[in-house]
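Consider the tokenized backbone below.
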């Protein structure tokens, strides 16, 4: 309206007066491509050209109309399919008997502005040029259109303000999910499924081939916008991420196209999903070829996956291997013969037929004609025969969009037939009415055609793969079918094994598909660590921590192994932990040998003393106590063997009690010997009768009493909190350390403390008697033995606390053996030396120092 006002103001005064005349005048002529009269007229709007050239809009003069370029033989076939369907219905005696259908077919130029103009033209009477403006409309009942969703939205919204409720729109190629809104588009129907189903199928396709890093290119229209939003919704929560989203401008711009191509080339995503129509996609793909864009796996939407314009051999390096979902194909009987009948002689004044000839043969039947691009074409007779190789026009073997147009016309005819033949109270609709025009069902070419409550066709898709034909062109191979709209199952036929995918070098056949991931999959033993600021599909592979595993590819987190298990080296499985205890391995064998040798040496000394029991050195040192000491030392050596082997409940209780009682017995005997030695030398003083208190009976009582105290401590220990086997999994996580827990730490240290107390008392008494007269003063050797004993056990305390695993037990055994050897050597080595090597000194006189 603003442009019109500016134009009026720019006119001179006489012209302005003429322009403001009350008489309406037609400013431009917009004639239909095909037209026929009938009782009911059906409009048809098709993108007979796929590109447009905008006029100069500088507002200084009257702008010209939008110029359409790029004749599309495929869309021309759609228009002829509508014309064929109308003629079949008019010749039918069963459908609409006594009535005929007319049609008016216009070109939308694949552009909403031109589509709007075509919509107004199709509503405005028979012919704009033959009748006054605004004088009345023809008997229009429905419109077959449009191909693009944006154009269909314009078409639907134009009808609402004009209050034309009886005119329904049946689209053959507008799949935008937005058009399913019955409140906004109450008279819109379509024979193509909604994009709500297509995006579900594409999402499942991406997941099936593990294409987790994909780019999306869409057109600048409602179809592209809603398809992208639907795909993002379907991919939400899945493993697929969108690397980029690019939009081809509605008015094509080469500079913007080059920017998009740069994004595609620089991205690591090798799979690109394209929601676009042929109009904007054709120049874009040409620019892609000029930029030598290769190595892209294209996933096509139904809007262009079956476009014949791209099947030329020049497109194969770019588009070979393209995969996508095409709408269901159908059979139109007699279509090929009908197309063959179209020629310039039959339609001498139809400019569309002239352009068809130019597109198919590169010539014009009229010397003054030119191509849609403006170039002058050579002359031809117009009698050339159409050949099957003109696939964009003559491809009738797998009609899809053409079949949708055909179904749309029959849907209108059946709806009119039902309305006209329906009797009130006996109708096929709710409450037996005849007024619900939204319900129609019929059979055509063996297919049952139904519409859901939203006016959409029940969906069914073919999986299409673009493969190289024998002639070097692209062949559209049906590789699989998507069925069942309720559970959305993606099914592949046996042809799935022969899918062709184009890589940067060559075609790869079979199940070997291109890889399109932001990050390579994490193998078992690793987990995914998301990179900061990047999508979830971009991650680093981090090895699982010790004790954790991942046994699946692309694990989000590592699982912790149970307490008794640990991860293997690769971090892929939990294996039983190594059970460690002081077994009969190298260390255990060495300690066993030392203990046995110590016991054998002790028994040898016992034998020597027994054999020489009547000699002075044995008798003067209290042979009975010496035998008790040797017996207890033998037990001390042998008790070390109980510490070797797998701990059990009995062995844990036995090892500590045996060790404590035998050492208490040994130290008690040595204490008795010390008291006897000290008493023997003090008894020589006048009036000292201490020896009567240290007779053999009293000595035995002392030994038994001292040992009994330790036995009582051990009994209380076993009753209150006995030692028990303990599986230590905390000290070294990769191992289970089997050891004996002392149960009560207090009892354990009481046992050791009591032994230390006996040793300390014995050491003090022996130290006091160390300088008593005599060549063989046993008090000296007892002093040394207690000094070694105390030193060993004092060193044992920090070593025991700090030793790991089985070395704790080894330290305890070492302390037992070291202290036992210390006692044995200090107390009995000098005596054995005299007995065996110096028998001449084994006399009372020598030992008494006289």
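A designed sequence for it:
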């Amino acid at each position: 309206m603003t442009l019109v006002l500016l134009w009026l103001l720019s006119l001179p005064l006489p012209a302005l007066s003429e322009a403001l005349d009350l008489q309406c005048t037609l400013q431009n002529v917009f004639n239909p491509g095909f037209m026929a009269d009938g009782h009911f007229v059906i409009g048809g709007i098709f993108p007979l050209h796929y590109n447009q050239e905008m006029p100069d809009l500088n507002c200084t003069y009257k702008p010209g109309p939008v110029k359409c370029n790029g004749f599309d033989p495929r869309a021309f076939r759609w228009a002829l399919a509508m014309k064929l369907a109308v003629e079949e219905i008019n010749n039918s005696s069963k459908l609409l008997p006594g009535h005929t259908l007319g049609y008016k077919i216009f070109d939308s130029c694949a552009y909403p502005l031109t589509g709007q103009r075509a919509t107004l033209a199709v509503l405005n009477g028979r012919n704009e040029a033959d009748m006054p403006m605004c004088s009345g409309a023809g008997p229009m009942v429905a419109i077959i259109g449009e191909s693009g969703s944006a154009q269909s939205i314009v078409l639907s919204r134009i009808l609402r303000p004009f209050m034309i409720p009886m005119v329904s729109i049946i689209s053959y190629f507008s799949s935008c999910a937005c058009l399913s809104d019955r409140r906004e588009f109450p008279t819109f129907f379509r024979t193509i499924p909604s994009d709500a189903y297509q995006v579900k199928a594409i999402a499942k396709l991406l997941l099936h081939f593990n294409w987790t890093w994909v780019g999306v290119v869409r057109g600048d229209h409602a179809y592209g916008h809603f398809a992208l939003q639907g795909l993002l919704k379907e991919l939400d929560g899945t493993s697929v991420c969108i690397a980029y989203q690019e939009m081809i401008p509605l008015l094509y711009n080469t500079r913007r196209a080059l920017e998009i191509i740069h994004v595609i080339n620089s991205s690591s995503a090798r799979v690109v999903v394209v929601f676009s129509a042929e109009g904007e996609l054709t120049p874009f793909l040409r620019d892609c070829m000029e930029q030598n864009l290769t190595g892209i796996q294209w996933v096509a939407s139904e809007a262009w996956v079956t476009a014949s314009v791209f099947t030329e051999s020049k497109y194969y390096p770019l588009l070979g291997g393209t995969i996508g979902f095409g709408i269901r194909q159908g059979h139109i009987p007699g279509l090929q013969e009908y197309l063959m009948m179209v020629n310039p002689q039959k339609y001498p004044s139809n400019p569309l037929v002239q352009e068809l000839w130019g597109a198919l043969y590169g010539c014009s039947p009229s010397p003054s004609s030119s191509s849609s691009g403006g170039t002058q074409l050579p002359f031809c007779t117009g009698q050339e025969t159409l050949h099957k190789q003109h696939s964009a026009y003559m491809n009738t073997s797998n009609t899809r969009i053409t079949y949708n147009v055909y179904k749309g016309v029959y849907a209108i005819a059946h709806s009119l037939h039902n309305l006209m033949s329906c009797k009130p109270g006996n109708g096929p609709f709710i409450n037996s009415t005849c007024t619900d025009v939204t319900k129609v069902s019929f059979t055509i070419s063996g297919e049952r055609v139904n519409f859901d409550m939203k006016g959409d066709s029940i969906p069914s898709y073919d999986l299409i793969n673009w493969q190289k034909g024998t002639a070097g062109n692209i062949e559209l191979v049906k590789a699989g079918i998507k069925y069942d709209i309720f559970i959305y199952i993606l099914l592949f036929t046996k042809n799935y094994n022969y899918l062709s995918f184009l890589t940067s070098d060559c075609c790869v056949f079979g199940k070997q598909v291109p890889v399109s991931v932001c990050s390579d999959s994490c193998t078992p033993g690793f987990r995914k660590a998301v990179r900061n600021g990047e999508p979830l599909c971009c991650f680093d592979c981090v090895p699982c921590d010790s004790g954790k595993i991942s046994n699946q590819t692309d694990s989000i987190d590592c699982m912790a192994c149970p307490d008794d298990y640990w991860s293997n080296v690769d971090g892929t499985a939990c294996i039983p932990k190594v059970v460690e205890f002081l077994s009969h391995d190298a260390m255990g064998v060495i300690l066993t040998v030392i203990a046995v040798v110590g016991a054998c040496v002790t028994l040898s000394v016992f034998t020597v003393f027994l054999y020489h029991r009547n000699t002075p050195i044995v008798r003067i040192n209290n042979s009975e106590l010496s035998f008790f000491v040797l017996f207890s030392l033998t037990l001390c050596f042998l008790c070390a063997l109980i510490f070797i082997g797998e701990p059990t409940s009995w062995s844990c209780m036995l090892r500590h009690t045996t060790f404590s009682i035998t050492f208490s017995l040994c130290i008690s005997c040595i204490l008795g010997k010390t008291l006897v030695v000290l008493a023997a030398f003090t008894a020589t003083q006048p009036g000292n009768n201490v020896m009567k208190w240290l007779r053999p009976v009293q000595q035995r009582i002392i030994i038994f009493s001292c040992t009994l105290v330790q036995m009582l401590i051990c009994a209380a220990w076993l009753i209150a909190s006995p030692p028990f086997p303990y599986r230590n999994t905390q000290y070294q996580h990769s191992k289970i350390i089997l050891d004996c827990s002392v149960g009560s730490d207090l009892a354990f240290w009481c046992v050791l403390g009591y032994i230390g107390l006996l040793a300390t008392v014995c050491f003090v008494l022996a130290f006091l008697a160390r300088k008593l007269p005599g060549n063989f003063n046993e008090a000296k050797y007892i002093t040394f033995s207690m000094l070694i004993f105390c030193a060993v056990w004092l060193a044992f305390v920090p070593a025991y606390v700090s030793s790991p695993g089985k070395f704790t037990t080894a330290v305890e055994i070492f302390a037992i053996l070291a202290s036992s050897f210390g006692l044995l050597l200090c107390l009995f080595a000098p005596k054995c030396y005299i007995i065996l090597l110096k028998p001449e000194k084994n006399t009372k006189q020598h030992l008494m120092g006289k």
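Residues 526-577 form a domain with the Tumor Necrosis Factor Receptor, subunit A; domain 2 fold (CATH 2.10.50).
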